[in-house]
Amino acid sequence: MTDSSSWQPPTPYGPPVSRQNRQFAAPAGTPGWTPPPRPGLIPLRPLTLGTLLSAAFQVLRRNPRPTFGFALLVNGGITLLTLIVVGAVTFFAVSRTLNATEADAATLGAGSVALIILSGLIPVALSIVASAVVQGVISLEVARATLGEKLKLSGLWRAARGRIGALIGWTLLITGAVIVALTVVSVVIALIIAFGGTAGIVIGVLLGVVFVTGAIVASVWLSTRLSLVPSVLMLERLPLRAAVVRSWSLTTGYFWKTLGIQLLVVVIVQTVAGIISAPLQLILGFASALFNPASDQTAFAVGIAVVYVLTIAVSIVFGAIAQVVQASTAALIYIDLRMRKEGLDLQLSHFVEARGAGDPTVPDPYFVGPTAPLGTGTGSTSLGDGPAWS
User: Fold this and answer.
1) Distance between CA 281 and CA 54 in Å, rounded?
2) What is the pLDDT of residues 289-325, one digit of tens each?
3) How far apart are CA 273 and CA 384, in angstroms?
4) Tag placement on the chain: N or C end, fewer CB within 10 Å?
């Protein structure tokens, strides 16, 4: 006779199963067991290292236009703008210095250097902003691809509406904090060296070594703990402070895993880029000498220009690939940690099943607020299709 006091009603997803037992489920073919669904980019279960790495690179191939194409367009535009702005300012500054009188040459020379440096800050700032925008779009692409949706850039951009500003603000905040910290420490060390005599030089050098070591450790630690902030901002639509706390909470207990995966992806991307770009540059260098045996200065200049342009083109392409893969990795780590800690895989499965049954009232599974917006993405690839929530 079963004790009725110990009976509990079944949950909507079946009897409670611990995370550990779910990872060691019965093999395929066992009665009553089915593999986890895979409606899109990844299977809806906690991810293995191989699945996560392959999915990060599959983002490029699965939906290349709003991912690789967008990153390539942004990187190419920033590079072109940098060449135009810095090139024009440099040409103006150098021409002005060369045409100056001997008495004004030193003053104009110093001013020209400062002007060139300031002109370089504009593309750097735009590059930071553009990088944040690309990262936000890729985070949304990974999230919707996990549900089997394949959106165009217009749909992703509509889904990002209202959050791009927060993401840009976060990126600028981090950049500003780094610049301020470096400036303050550099000024302090410089003052110690300048006014401390021999002892000041020794103390300044030791402080510099300690600061560089501490800065590397702190930057690795903080960047890992806060690496999920962009995904939280875009998918959960939390305020900036809450997004920082959320990223910190999700990575608690998974610091080394998060750091290791991100470092592994960087090593893979940089290794592939080096393997391809190094022989290419070597071939271009030999080709320039081969087609200019007479050492004609004009032909040599043209060859150098061609090599330079092709090198920039290759760097833009690999920069776009690296940007997409690294942003995809961060978004996949975010989804994986939520699966492990919060059972997000069950919510995603429920969303996919409800959407397949034609239920338009199912809330967006990534949103954790008290009133989750409706997730009405259809998976269609027509222009402008995407989630109705904003």
Assistant:
1) 29
2) 666 555 656 666 666 777 777 778 888 888 889 889 9
3) 34
4) N
pLDDT at 333 over 90: yes
CB 389 within 8 A of CB 375: yes
* Euclidean distance between CA atoms 126 and 145, whole angstroms: 28
Longest dimension (CA), the chain: 107
How far apart, in whole angstroms, are the C-alpha atoms of residue 267 and residue 106? 45
Residue 45 lies in a domain: no
Q: What is the mean pLDDT of the chain?
A: 77
Structurally, how many domains does the chain consist of?
1
Range of the domain at 82: 56-355
CB neighbour list of residue 190: distance below 8 Å, 6 or more residues apart: 204
What is the three-class DSSP state of 374? Answer: strand
**Measured between alpha carbons, how far is 135 from 153 in angstroms, rounded to an integer?**
13
Helix (H) and strand (E) counts in the chain: 12, 0
Nearest 5°: phi and psi at 238?
A: -85, 160
**In terms of Cα–Cα distance, which of 268, 263, 274 is closest to 315?**
274
Q: Select from 183, 155, 125 the least CA-distant residue to 390.
A: 155
Could you tell me if 107 and 205 are in contact, meaning their C-beta atoms sit under 8 angstroms apart?
no
Helix (H, G, I), strand (E, B) or coil at 363: strand
**Helix H or strand E encompassing 277:** helix 255-290
Q: Are 235 and 140 in contact (CB under 8 A)?
A: yes
What pTM was computed for the model? 0.77
In a domain, 327, yes or no: yes
10 DSSP 8-state letter: P
44 found inside a domain: no
CA dihedral 265, 270, 275, 276 (to 10 degrees): 100
pLDDT digit string, tens, across residues 161-176: 888 888 888 888 888 8
- Tally the C-alpha atoms within 13 A of residue 74's C-alpha that lie toward its C-beta: 23
Amino acid, single-letter form, for residue 190: A
Other CB atoms within 10 A of residue 189 CB: 18
Is 42 among the domain residues? no
CA atoms of 254 and 56, how far apart (whole Å): 19
Q: What is the dihedral of CA 11, 16, 19, 24, to 10 degrees?
A: -110
Rounded CA-CA distance 128/336 in Å is 27
Residue 356's nearest CA partner among 333, 383, 370, 377 is 377
